[in-house]
Specification:
Number of helices: 3
Structural class: alpha/beta
Largest sheet: 4 strands, mixed
Strand order of the largest sheet: 2-1-4-6
Distance between the termini: 44 Å
Number of strands: 8
Shape: globular
Order of helices and strands: HEEEEEEEEHH
Bound molecules: copper (II) ion
Helix content: 10-25%
């Protein structure tokens, strides 16, 4: 094989890796503005290939996806453990902290374009409905989605 081609290939592979970013979402009992049981930031807009690490900044939390684009595996972490998820497929991802879903501990990650926006919008009311406190939090995040 052509040596030059191989070198170019490796340089390209390296540069793609360099552009992929890693974001952090903290799992908190008390958020920056005093809100309770919260992911911060609760809304992220990232690009395909980027990763998000869910950080157990407070105890008793984990992240579990409820909505992912078609063909994507659901993700779920373990209590008090950091979890990194790499998002390859564009679309809207909605996740919750299972023990605090009743307190609307939830978040949205937009990866690239909102290809499954209708699917996500149809599912949001049922998730909001389960919240007894922090009502409307998920709806506020949903307003940040770029169509
Ligand atoms: Cu929690």
């Amino acid at each position: 094989m052509n040596k030059c081609f191989i070198i170019v290939f490796f340089l390209l592979a390296l540069s793609f890796q360099a552009f992929a970013k890693t974001y952090e979402v903290k799992m908190l009992n008390i958020g920056e503005n005093g809100s309770t049981m919260v992911f911060e930031p609760g809304f992220l807009h990232i690009e395909s290939g980027d990763s998000v690490t869910f950080v157990p900044a407070s105890k008793g939390h984990w992240a579990k996806s409820l909505i992912v684009p078609d063909g994507v595996s659901q993700f779920e972490g373990k209590i008090n453990e950091a979890m990194s998820v790499t998002f390859e497929k564009e679309g809207i991802y909605v996740y919750v902290c299972p023990p605090h879903q009743v307190m609307n501990m939830s978040g949205i990650i937009q990866v690239g374009r909102a290809l499954n926006l209708n699917q996500a919008k149809e599912a949001l009311p049922a998730i909001e409905h389960r919240a007894v406190t922090n009502k409307g939090r998920l709806n506020e995040y949903a307003k940040k989605i770029q169509e």
